[in-house]
């Protein structure tokens, strides 16, 4: 039985563009962010629907609860509550956070994917690049990520590709849940 709503956590280093990605995927507009982005304090939950997903030959719609989590470690004490009941994890990093990203991604993966025993199909890494020549290979990720989908995201030129990548990720989560039932 598929859930009525998916809880998906989006987390990564501070200033990697998580909130911008969350707003784009959910088609949310936050007036406060129209100017200079400000750091998320703890978590911000965005709810929306993804329509017309094909799951095992059936078309379905699913409600999404996207938890846009702060990358600041001062909120680490909240992590147990954040990961409770999670169905999927989006790890986000950017060229500006690439130096520390490999170690940080490993830490976040272990806590939010491995420990709650999620499948690699319930995790995706979004590399939020701002220039076309930004290269994901500079991340030097560990072998842990060899089976995790990695998507290069450019909000300036990405048009609907990011929404399609997100829909594919949601379908992957639902197929994984369906297979385990």
From TrEMBL:
<keyword id="KW-0342">GTP-binding</keyword>
<protein>
    <submittedName>
        <fullName>Intraflagellar transport protein 22 homolog isoform X1</fullName>
    </submittedName>
</protein>
<dbReference type="InterPro" id="IPR027417">
    <property type="entry name" value="P-loop_NTPase"/>
</dbReference>
<keyword id="KW-0547">Nucleotide-binding</keyword>
<dbReference type="Pfam" id="PF08477">
    <property type="entry name" value="Roc"/>
</dbReference>
């Amino acid at each position: 039985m598929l859930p009525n709503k998916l809880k998906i956590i989006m987390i990564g280093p501070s200033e990697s563009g998580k909130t911008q990605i969350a707003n784009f995927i959910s088609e949310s507009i936050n007036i406060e962010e129209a100017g200079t982005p400000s750091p998320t304090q703890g978590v911000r939950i965005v709810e929306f629907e993804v329509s017309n997903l094909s799951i095992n030959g059936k078309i379905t719609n699913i409600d999404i609860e996207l938890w846009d989590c702060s990358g600041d470690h001062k909120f680490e004490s909240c992590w147990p509550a954040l990961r409770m009941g999670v169905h999927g994890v989006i790890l986000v990093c950017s060229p500006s956070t690439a130096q520390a990203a490999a170690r940080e991604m490993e830490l976040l993966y272990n806590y939010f994917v491995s420990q709650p025993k999620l499948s690699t199909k319930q995790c995706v890494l979004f590399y939020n690049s701002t220039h076309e020549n930004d290269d994901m290979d500079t991340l030097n990720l560990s072998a842990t990520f060899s089976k995790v989908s990695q998507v290069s995201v450019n909000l300036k030129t990405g048009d609907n590709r990011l929404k399609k990548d997100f829909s594919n990720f949601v379908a992957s989560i639902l197929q994984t849940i369906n297979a385990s039932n």
